[in-house]
Structure formats: structure tokens, C-alpha cells
Specification:
Two copies of one chain form a homodimer. The first copy, chain A, has 273 residues and is α+β, with helices and mostly antiparallel strands. Chain A has one domain: Carbonic Anhydrase II, CATH 3.10.200.10. Helix content of chain A is 22%, strand content 26%. In chain A, the strands form two sheets. In chain A, strands 2, 3, 4, 5, 6, 8, 9, 10, 11, 12 and 13 form an eleven-stranded mixed beta sheet that branches. A two-stranded parallel sheet of chain A has the order 1-7. The longest helix of chain A has 14 residues. At the A-B interface, helix 3, helix 6 and helix 7 of A face helix 3, helix 6 and helix 7 of B.
Chain lengths: 273, 273
């Protein structure tokens, strides 16, 4: 993956805080596993991400194009031939790491979107889902994080419902018992992405411009969500919730109004009046 | 159920806005089904409940003992003999209503807690769970809402995991196909609460002083959570998420700090500095 020198330098200086962008030039992978400096409950939780680092996380409170959102089901559009993902089989498995706030897998792949190519950095899981469709959430969601040579980030997301265990998800989740603690790393079983590529191509997509769903909540992220969920069985769901516990940011406003900011203004007015 | 005259008068004047307290003297049941004036996404969502009605919902933004919370698993204590629920079988079923933001069941019953008796008003469902235990959420949660003669409210909550379908939950969920729209009402199959009473008595409880988890977020609510989850099968879970979609408030701070208020103050300081 090509890295711009200045971004590379920045990335070497920046702490590994998040997972939406973990391994991108914004925040490179840390040696020996990083303990993210945010969480999902209380003062570490999403409402307070801004206060955890007011400079770095400014957009978590003040952004106007934040993710996740509640998607309108009617906005699903057929996946054009100019949009595709290509992820070679990981014949010997791939690295699976427990980052504390999620588990992620690092392997190679590409996203081609209208002639622009981005490289797969990692994919990771959320439970329950971060995005909702017509108000409905799903038990899990997986995010494939891609970065282009110009450092722009695209995330391809799949909602995950309960049902038969998807073979690819099964091969990843089978590794969870080996990474019980933050920083633990193991190798997955061999991974085959052929069915996922076809699922993506045939299911249509929701697309919108949003942000990282974890601090620093950077905007300018191209979101591409598959309209059709993958599926996981109860045992796989239990394994993820036992380990990750809960890591979904609440849905943001999709009308260019920041909810935290809106709420703050209302509360300030209440103090004055 | 005995109602204090002034509370009864108030209750007749108040609109039916919520479901945590629906049917209590705070908000009596409306004729023909009420459409709650709040939601779970965007400007109707939990971050903005205060702004929807600044007088009525003041505590949603400014309360310091708000629910739900992330419970410490170690705080589970054996259920004392002075704490029990008694809910007679509903031999001919009970009324099941779609309130838009949840479904609720009205039937009679009592909670005895240290010599104080409260009457069951209704029970209703959340998905995913509102409370978390050691950070872990569950797919569902059911709240049994009780009110005492002094108008104080106690809620007995059960987390619900995936597994064999609990017979009582199954008898309730079987009614969901008959109430597809807000305001729809049906009758459940016969309901037997014997197993639930035993489950409650034998599983231990987490107890804390919190609030309604829906507007107006009133405080002074005695929360009593069973330490052991009930279970529901995948079909029951699908039926609930298809209908309710998502209705869980984010966890609040359990240290007497209001997160929305905290966040607002930080943002005001950022504007001044």
C-alpha cells in the first residue's frame, strides 16, 4: 500500500486509538496490540468521546456527516459493474487480533469504485449493528476498511442476521477462543472471499458520505453497505457478544444536523432562559 | 389499583407519551392506542428527547440517576424472601398492544419488596437490551412495571438471551402477527407466570435507584433486575425485531454524572475558549 510521506510520518506519531481506521495511515497498527482509549459505556462511551480528547475527537461532537445512520431501505440501488471488491483467498489464514473494542482481521484485497482503487486494510466486527435499515437493527455488522493512495477511506459494510453460519464468518469466529484478552493475536483458518464478492455484487448497495464510527470520527468516509445481510448462527453470535460485549455507536442524524451539538445548544439555551 | 385522587386527576390530563410508565398514574392508557411522541433515531431519538418537550422531559438531559446502566456482575445478590413477584395466571390471555415504540401486555400481579406492595401495571419489551452486565448487552429485555399506592414505580427487568423459547415469552410473542401497526390490540394465549416467579426468586437480583428509560425519564424508579436471563429462540427474536425494530436507550452513567449534561458543558467550554 502506497503511503504519502507526510501521512506516514503523522501515522507513526499518532497513538492507536480506534478500530474503524486502525491500520490506515490515520492510525497504524501498534506493536503487541493497542488498548483503544475509548469505550461504549459511561464516561468512556460515545456521548463522551469528544471530551476524551477535545482536539483529536472534535468531530465526534461537532461533525455534521457522522456515521452510523438509519438507512432508508428504498435507497438500495443495484451494484454497478464499476463497483466491486476483490479479496484473494487467504490460504494459510490471516491475522486475527483482539483490540479490546473489537476483533479485526488483516488481509489483502481491493475495492474498485468508479475507476478509483483502494486497498483493504482490515475488517472488523460490531455487535449489535451500527447501521439500521428503516429503523431496524441487526445482531452484528462487519466493516471492511479500504484506503486509497490519496489516503481517502471507504468502508464496505455488511449487516449480519441470525441464520445459517456463513462459511467465511465461521472461519473467522472459530479463532475467537484463542484471543480472550486485548492484544491477543491468532491466525484464522483459511479464508475464502469468493462468496462474499458475489454476495456484494448481486445484493445492491446503500451509499452515503459519512465518518468513522469510532474516535476521531473523521468525516469524508465513503460508506458502501450491502443491501442484503450475511448470516451467523447463534453460537457465532454468542461467541462475538461474549468477547466484544457491545460496540455500536448510536445512530447519527442523516440530515446534516449533529445530534450532540443540537442537544448541547438546547441545553445552553435552557440555562440562559 | 388504588390511585391517589390528585395523581388520578393529573393522569387523566396527561398525554400518553411513553411506555416505561404507560398505564401508571404518570400516564394512563389512551383509548384506541397512543402514538408515543418520541423515537430511537435522529431528532426523535434519545439524544434529543429533552428538546422534544423541554419541560416534561427535562430529566432526560439533566437527570443524574438515569437508566439504563451498565451493571457490575459482581453486584448480584441473592433474592431475599422479603422480595417476590406474584402474577396470577391469565387463563383467558391478556391484552397485547402495539404502542409503536414497544409492545405491552396488561395483566394483574403484585411485587412485594420489604413489606411494600406494588401493583403490576403492564410489561413490555426492548430490543436489544437496555441494561448491560459487565459491558455485555443481550438481544432482548422485558420490563414488568409496578406502581405502589404512593405512586412510586418499581420495574422488575429480565435480560433475554438466545436459546430455547421460554413458554411465557412464546405465549406473548405468538400474538405479534396480529398487531402489525401502532394502536393494534389483540389477546394473548393463556399466560402462566409460575416459572417466572420461581426464576425470579432463585436467580438473585441487581438493584439500583434509576429512572424511566423513556421520556419523561422520571427518577426515583426502583430497578430490580434478575441476574439470570430468560431465553428466546431465533424465530421469537426475529418477530420482535421485525416489529419493534430498535428501542434501547444508550447506557447512562452510574456515577451520578449525566452524560448529556457533561457533554454539553464540555462543548460550551470549547466555544468560549
Amino acid at each position: 500500500m502506497f503511503l504519502q510521506p507526510t501521512l506516514l510520518l503523522l501515522s507513526l506519531l499518532a497513538p492507536a486509538l480506534g478500530h474503524e481506521h486502525y491500520g490506515t495511515t490515520l492510525y497504524p497498527r501498534a506493536e503487541g496490540g493497542a488498548s483503544p482509549k475509548f469505550g461504549y459505556h459511561g464516561l468512556e462511551g460515545p456521548l463522551n468521546w469528544y471530551s476524551l480528547d477535545k482536539e483529536a475527537n472534535e468531530l465526534c461532537a461537532k461533525g455534521t456527516h457522522q456515521s452510523p445512520i438509519n438507512v432508508a431501505g428504498a435507497s438500495c440501488a443495484a451494484t454497478p459493474s464499476s463497483l466491486s471488491i476483490k479479496i484473494p483467498a487467504a490460504l494459510h489464514g490471516a491475522e486475527l487480533e483482539n483490540l479490546g473494542t473489537t476483533v479485526d482481521v488483516t488481509t489483502n484485497g481491493t475495492l474498485v469504485n468508479g475507476g478509483k482503487t483502494s486497498e483493504l486494510v482490515q475488517f472488523h466486527f460490531h455487535t449489535p449493528s451500527e447501521h439500521a435499515v428503516d429503523g431496524k437493527y441487526y445482531p452484528m455488522e462487519v466493516h471492511f476498511v479500504f484506503q486509497a493512495a490519496d489516503a481517502s477511506i471507504s468502508v464496505v459494510g455488511f449487516l449480519i442476521e441470525l441464520g445459517p453460519l456463513d462459511a467465511l464468518l465461521g472461519a473467522v469466529l472459530a479463532g475467537l477462543p484463542y484471543i480472550p484478552s486485548t492484544g491477543n493475536v491468532t491466525h484464522t483458518k483459511p479464508l475464502d472471499f469468493t462468496a462474499l464478492e458475489k454476495h456484494f455484487a448481486s445484493s445492491g448497495t446503500y451509499q452515503y458520505a459519512g465518518s468513522l464510527t469510532t474516535p476521531p470520527c473523521s468525516e469524508g468516509v465513503s460508506w458502501i453497505l450491502s443491501c442484503k445481510p450475511l448470516s451467523v448462527d447463534v453460537a457465532g453470535y454468542e461467541a462475538i457478544t461474549d468477547l466484544i460485549k457491545f460496540n455500536a455507536r448510536y445512530t447519527q442524524n442523516n440530515e446534516g444536523v449533529n445530534l450532540l451539538e443540537h442537544s448541547a445548544i438546547e441545553q445552553v439555551l435552557a440555562r440562559i432562559n
